[in-house]
Design a protein that fits this description.
Strand content: 15-25%
Largest sheet: 3 strands, antiparallel
Strand order of the largest sheet: 1-9-8
Order of helices and strands: HHEEEHEEEEEE
Structural class: alpha+beta
Number of helices: 3
Oligomer: single chain
Shape: globular
Mean pLDDT: 83
């Protein structure tokens, strides 16, 4: 009789252990899965390829990278010609604040290729999205001396056609230029600093 009780007790212990182990394994699956980033989180950090083949001179397009609007602007020769004439009304005309752009875009145009500008479209004051006002002068709707650029309607910050901030406005620094490389004449990859050979792009 005692032997039968012991056998029954052993079977019960084994069965309980198996069920407990199975339950623990099943419970741990969602817990372990919760350590993995979601598809959205992975996408937010991923580079974004932009095809701007249909972008005409004087136009811009907007894409999303890391939850932020990124502008790709095709600048005309006339737009580029204004950039070296307005240094005296800019806070940081030479882009000396290093955190605002990669080293390879620290130039007059703040770009790898002068005619194509890539910049994050978020005001450096409180994070509003400025509006493009490319026409110069009165046609811009800003003022007669307007050289073309971006105006933030939240608090009045102004930026030129290279994303450089004007003096006497709330925004303290230039718009941020994200890391990027050109894959071809009409494709740019936003979010990476080096090409497939590990080399940084050159201006």
């Amino acid at each position: 009789m005692t032997e039968k009780v012991n056998k029954t007790r052993r079977r019960l212990i084994i069965a309980t252990s198996v069920l407990g182990g199975t339950g623990l394994a099943l419970a741990s699956v969602p817990f372990i899965a919760s350590w993995r980033p979601s598809a959205r989180a992975r996408a937010l950090g991923s580079p974004v390829e932009v095809d701007f083949s249909k972008l005409k001179p004087g136009q811009m397009l907007t894409v999303e990278w890391r939850g932020q609007p990124v502008w790709v602007i095709s600048r005309t020769p006339e737009m580029l010609a204004t950039l070296d004439k307005i240094a005296d009304i800019l806070v940081d005309p030479n882009s000396n604040v290093e955190s605002q752009q990669p080293a390879y875009t620290k130039n007059l145009y703040r770009s790898i290729r002068p005619e194509i500008m890539v910049v994050i479209g978020i005001c450096t004051h409180l994070g509003c999205v400025p509006t493009e006002h490319f026409p110069v002068g009165e046609a811009s709707g800003i003022n007669a001396d307007w050289p073309g650029g971006y105006f933030c309607h939240c608090h009045g910050s102004k930026f030129d056609l290279a994303g450089r901030v004007f003096k006497n406005v709330p925004a303290p620094t230039n718009l941020v230029v994200p890391p990027h490389i050109f894959l071809s004449e009409t494709r740019v990859l936003v979010g990476v600093d080096t090409d497939l050979k590990g080399q940084a792009p050159t201006a």
